[in-house]
Write a structure and sequence with these properties.
Number of strands: 25
Structural class: alpha+beta
Number of helices: 22
Distance between the termini: 77 Å
Shape: rod-shaped
Helix content: 40-55%
Strand content: 15-25%
Largest sheet: 8 strands, mixed
Oligomer: single chain
Radius of gyration: 48 Å
């Protein structure tokens, strides 16, 4: 198995550390900078799950606009509140919970009537905690479990006469940044004092079971309620307002309470009157009454159908915070193409499906944490890969440019597209042109290496420019000469005509190039060109470390020998009859300069003769 490059290993280690850091912070409570995202994603998951029917546990008796009209004003007189409690108590509820603060004394007759009503039934009253912040944030890092419950500056308790007649609990809920209630703390503290929540006190009164506090759990009798850090119970709303059965308190005043909705139920009395102010936004309703929020938490405690988000779930979140980004970055490094992106998308969709599915089954795994752990490393790694890819592409471009300086551009580009090009020898028809500088060896001995280099650079530039313009390929520069092919990478019908035209253009350019040199230099050198058309063997020559594209065969040898024929006959170009015949009578050699032939000529090292043509420019043809 191929070992990943060091930069990938470093990226994976940093990704894992980033996810681990976020996961450890998450174990100790919500992370402020991703809390808002988690709230939004939780609302989305609630919306995906839709409304659901709540268990038939709680009935809300609402002090609504109709009750206020019947009573004559709001807040209700305590004597009127006593009548409502008596009417409910007569139908045999499990307990009556008053979601209202009875902090100040009222008129004596009303307070006395309410006190007596409370004594005649099982009732739970609401107290409230005053906190230094709007949210009951836990900041104590002590390992003592009760040290992490929300700490209030003080408790606002019911009037003593009412507190003596009934039990009470703290009614505060914990909201997120959007104001949506997310948790109901089960316990509150103020200094050394610990008080249960209103919902927990109601559940205990309704079941007749004592509550026990253990690590990450609240036990009501034999049933365990799994809580989050700080004994917070997550809320899972059933739907918009009215989803939990709600009856107007005016029905109690008019003697019209339905017995089936009261008997053996927990009855929560709370205000829903317009302008009452006790409302909260939820995923299903922008103004859900506070009494329905409290009723939801009581139902969770009794029915055990709330969200589970305890330390075990947070550990699962930690695993996803490490595993998901590491897997995504691994896939991005392994497959840097469309397949890799599709695989990453599949992994993300699989995680999303798991997250939504477990949420539907009342397990609140964090959605924002894995996203926060994955997105930054993936973006940084992707950006780094893109930057490295561009650098690598730049290096490849430089190498390609360098290759094209050494190899003919057409051959280099074809080789880049097809690495197997000419891996095996290929027999094909091609035109071969040789050009050489006469007298160069003797001249190089007298002008020095710097001048020789300048002269050869000028020669190479001239040849390269004309060959490229004619569609040929320079297979090699050989000192003061060059070998040119017309037929690679693919043979074309126009190859002979292109080769013939290239010969004439080379001769014209060489003549002008020599004329621009100092007389002392130009008088000592000249040039000769030989060209032939026939079958060649094109291949790569060399070992694995260094290879050269070239051509061999009799056609190549003849073209090389034709340079000697041109020099011997004081012509600029010697072209075989085969090449001119293939190029056609309308080719450039017939149109420009002076062309003599065909002439049967013997070539060195060959038996028999070959029909050739000698070409001279007009300047040479007119020279005596």
């Amino acid at each position: 198995m191929r070992r990943p490059p060091p930069q990938t290993l470093i990226a994976l280690i940093l990704t894992a550390l980033w996810g681990l850091g976020l996961g450890v912070m998450h174990l100790h409570g919500d992370i402020p900078f991703i809390d808002g995202a988690e709230a939004t994603l939780t609302n989305l998951r609630n919306a995906v799950g839709g409304s659901r029917k709540p268990p038939d546990v709680v009935t809300i008796v609402a002090i609504d606009d109709e009750t206020s009209r019947v009573a004559g004003h709001y807040p209700l007189p305590r004597a009127t509140l006593a009548k409502i409690i008596d009417a409910i108590a007569a139908l045999g509820p499990k307990t009556i919970a008053l979601d209202m603060l009875l902090l100040d004394p009222g008129d004596e007759a009303g307070d006395a009537a309410l006190e007596q009503s409370l004594k005649r039934t099982s009732a739970v009253l609401a107290a409230a905690g005053i906190f230094p912040e709007s949210r009951q944030r836990v900041v104590d890092d002590s390992k003592e479990p009760l040290a992490r419950v929300p700490s209030a500056l003080q408790f606002l308790e019911p009037q003593k006469r009412f507190a003596d007649a009934a039990s009470y609990g703290v009614v505060n809920v914990q909201t997120d940044k959007t104001g949506t209630p997310r948790f109901v703390p089960m316990l509150f503290r103020s200094g050394e004092r610990i008080e249960p929540s209103f919902s927990l006190r109601v559940a205990s009164a309704a079941t007749g079971e004592h509550t026990t506090v253990i690590s990450d759990q609240i036990k009501i009798g034999d049933r365990s309620v799994h809580t989050d850090s700080g004994y917070l119970m997550p809320l899972s709303f059933y739907g918009p307002r009215g989803t939990i059965r709600t009856i107007s308190a005016s029905a109690a005043l008019n003697g019209q309470l339905p017995e089936e909705a009261i008997r053996d139920h927990i009855v929560v009395i709370g205000a829903t009157v317009t302008g009452g102010g006790d409302v909260f936004p939820t995923p299903f309703d922008p103004v859900l009454p506070g009494v329905e929020v409290i009723s939801t938490s009581i139902t969770h405690l009794i029915a055990g159908d709330g969200l589970v988000r305890d330390r075990g779930v947070r550990f699962i979140d930690l695993y996803f915070a490490v595993g998901l980004p590491v897997l995504v970055v691994s896939l991005l490094s392994w497959r840097r193409n469309t397949i890799g992106l599709i695989m990453v998308l599949c992994v993300v969709l699989a995680w999303l499906a798991i997250n939504v599915n477990v949420f539907k089954h009342s397990i609140w795994m964090s959605a924002a944490l894995p996203i926060a752990a994955t997105v930054p490393p993936a973006l940084f790694f992707g950006a780094a890969q893109l930057w490295l890819g561009r650098r690598q592409a730049g290096r490849f471009a430089e190498q390609s440019e360098l290759l094209q300086r050494i190899q003919a551009p057409g051959l280099a580009e074809h080789l880049a597209r097809d690495p197997g090009f000419l891996a095996a020898p290929v027999h094909q028809e091609a035109a071969v042109v040789f050009i050489d500088i006469n007298g160069f060896t003797g001249l190089s001995e007298t002008i020095g290496p710097a001048a020789v280099r300048d002269l050869l650079n000028g020669f190479y530039y001239l040849v390269d420019e004309e060959v490229t313009a004619s569609g040929g390929a320079i297979t090699s520069f050989m000192g003061d000469g060059a070998m040119i092919l017309f037929g690679l990478p693919q043979p074309k019908r126009a190859d002979p005509a292109n080769a013939a035209r290239c010969c004439i253009r080379l001769a014209d350019r060489m003549r002008g190039w020599l004329a621009a040199m100092p007389e002392a230099t130009a008088s000592r050198i000249g040039f000769k060109i030989g060209a032939h058309f026939g079958t060649i063997v094109a291949s790569r020559l060399g070992g694995g470390g260094r290879q050269q594209i070239t051509a061999t065969g009799d056609t190549v040898n003849i073209a090389s020998r034709l340079m000697e024929v041109a020099a011997r006959n004081r012509a600029e170009i010697a072209i075989s009859n085969d090449l001119l015949h293939s190029a056609g009578r309308d080719s450039v050699p017939f149109m420009e300069g002076k062309l003599d032939g065909p002439i049967e000529t013997k070539l060195r090292g060959r038996a028999g003769s070959l029909a050739i043509w000698l070409w001279r420019g007009r300047h040479d043809a007119e020279r005596p």
